[in-house]
Amino acid sequence: MEEVVEVPQSLAQQRRPILTGNSDIAQGTHIPLILPEINPLAHQRISVGYPEMDRVLGGGLVAGSLTLVGGEPGIGKSTLLLQVSGAIAENSGPVLYVSGEESIEQVKMRAERLDITSERLYLLAAIELDVIAEALKRLKPSLVVVDSIQTVLASHLTSAPGSISQVRECTLQLMQLAKSTHTPIFIIGHVTKEGTVAGPKALEHIADAVLYLEGERYHTYRLLRGVKNRFGATHEVGVFEMHGEGLLEVANPSAVFLADRATEATGSVVVVSMEGTRPLLVEVQALVTPSNFGNARCNTNGIEYNRLLMLLAVLTKRVGLAVGNHDVYANVVGGFTLEEPAIDLGVAAAIASSYREKHIPADMVLIGEVGLSGELRAVSRLPLRVREAAKLGFKRCIVPSAGKGAQLRAELEHAGLPADFKVIPSSTLAVALEIALH
Ligand code: TYD
Ligand code: MG
Q1: In what order do the strands lie in the sheet with 246-249?
Q2: What confidence tens digit (pLDDT) does each residue in 129-182 have?
Q3: Distance, CA 117 to ligand 1 centroid (Å)?
Q4: From the CB of 192, is ligand 1 less than 6 Å away?
Q5: Is the CB of 113 inside a 6 Å radius of any atom of ligand 1?
Q6: Which pTM does this prediction carry?
Q7: Rounded CA gap, 186 and 67, in Å?
Q8: Residues with a beta carbon under 5 angstroms from ion ligand 2
Q9: What is the rounded CA–CA span in Å between residue 113 and residue 269?
Q10: How does the average pLDDT of the chain come out, rounded?
Q11: Whose CA, among 59, 124, 145, 214, lies 20 to 30 Å from 275?
């Protein structure tokens, strides 16, 4: 059953013959080896040409890795990976871009728009897995992109492309191909709002790394979010912006998101959320209005609904804010979704600001988790967050004092803040609001 696959000469010299088959052990022989005998994978990474994406991958692309890029149709997956293909073809070696959705003429048209001209970028319109494997073995590319996994077909299965069994089998086979030939492979997978059965979720456990491209269709920002990575940290986020000439990196997203902030409006606040290892400053807005007919409504965009209800309950009970008969709208600017509890204080302050018609100072950021007793709870990486706020020109920051006292001050001093930056430790939500809205 097992056949020997040809591998690039340099690799063949370093390793034993590489076997493929239906076994899980895709490389090496089937003889168990003791730990010291095993050569570690040289974690040589190649840059995909975009530092924002390299970071999400954990520092670049690893040889023989299978990376799944998921996202809603039309969000920009093909655009991103065609740009990456262009960059790798330019800088590293030949790239095979397999399109099962568009004709090669269509892909060529897109490449022209994106100003990709590399002579080492090979386009192939194919859906059969065998054809893809054949092209890979012949071309020995530095990268393969399969656009999309929902169109690929393993001919020994009778089910339709896109069905769960096809998508799984094809992903497994592409994984083996990646491992046995040491070629990094990207597969694109569509998700729909309804969450299709055979979408990327069903493949996450197979792939080495899983990235999602997110954003709202009508916003130009796109977030590339790492949710799984066998070669690096997860939860890293890369920020891009969709332009006429493709996706451009946004190197300093906080500055961009805060650029058109209306500082005169009530209900606006800036929070600091850790997205992976990077602190991100984002504006949160709230609008509180008396409700009609006693039917209070609550609407959120980018904040978890239940978290908002909890904050409203704490504001009512612990701060004495009578928001009961009011409609409350909360919105994260820029189409972001924030999940960290560290934004609680900011969201609660935005609601209180709108309710009381009082501004939060434009040069202030608020950081802290809110507990059910109305206490402010400590958050992780506080010095990093505060420093980022200072870097962007903010002058004041309310943080949880959370019983740390002197230690907190020392930590923050260590963060190297400018002399005129004021850190205001606060123990409860009520006290923090007193300071922010006085
Ligand atoms: P696409 O990469 O085809 O999305 P996906 O592969 O995730 O389905 O992106 C489609 C959208 O991106 C399309 O609506 C047009 C837009 N777009 C631009 O705005 N600028 C560009 O340079 C390109 C190529 C696409
Ligand atoms: Mg596409």
Answers
A1: 121-125, 95-99, 143-147, 185-190, 66-71, 209-214, 221-229, 237-243, 246-249
A2: 999 999 999 999 999 999 999 999 998 888 888 888 999 999 999 999 999 999
A3: 18
A4: no
A5: yes
A6: 0.79
A7: 5
A8: 78
A9: 39
A10: 87
A11: 145
pLDDT score at 47: 95
Give the residue from 388, 359, 423 showing the smallest Cα distance to 282: 388
State the distance from the centre of ligand 1 to the C-alpha of 209, rounded, in angstroms.
Answer: 23
For the CA of 188, the nearest atom of ligand 1: 6
pLDDT band of residue 36 (cuts 50, 70, 90) is confident
The protein residue whose alpha carbon is closest to atom 10 in ligand 1 is: 74
Element (H, E) at 245: none
Does 287 have pLDDT greater than 90? yes
**381: pLDDT strictly greater than 70:** yes
CA 280 from centre of chain: 13
* Best of 72, 75, 79 for a ligand 1 pocket test (most atoms within 8 Å of beta carbon): 79
Distance (angstroms) between ligand 2 centre and the Cα of 282 equals: 29
User: In whole angstroms, what is the distance from residue 188 CA to residue 99 CA?
Assistant: 10
Q: Strand, helix or coil at 96?
A: strand
Which H or E element spans position 8?
A: none
Give the pLDDT confidence of 313-328 residue by residue, as tens digits.
999 999 999 998 899 9
Cα distance between residue 286 and residue 268, in whole Å: 7
- Could you tell me if 397 and 366 are in contact, meaning their C-beta atoms sit under 8 angstroms apart? yes
Determine the distance separating the centroid of ligand 1 and the alpha carbon of 207, expressed in angstroms. 24
Is the pLDDT score of 430 beyond 70? yes
**Nearest ligand to the CA atom of 82:** 1
Mutating to test ligand 1, I would choose from 242, 243, 247 the residue with most ligand atoms within 8 A of its C-beta, which is: 242
Residue by residue, DSSP assigns 321-349 as: ---TTEEEEEEETTS--B--GGGHHHHHH
Q: Which residue do the tokens 């975009």 mark?
A: 50
Q: How far is CA 144 from the centre of its chain?
A: 22
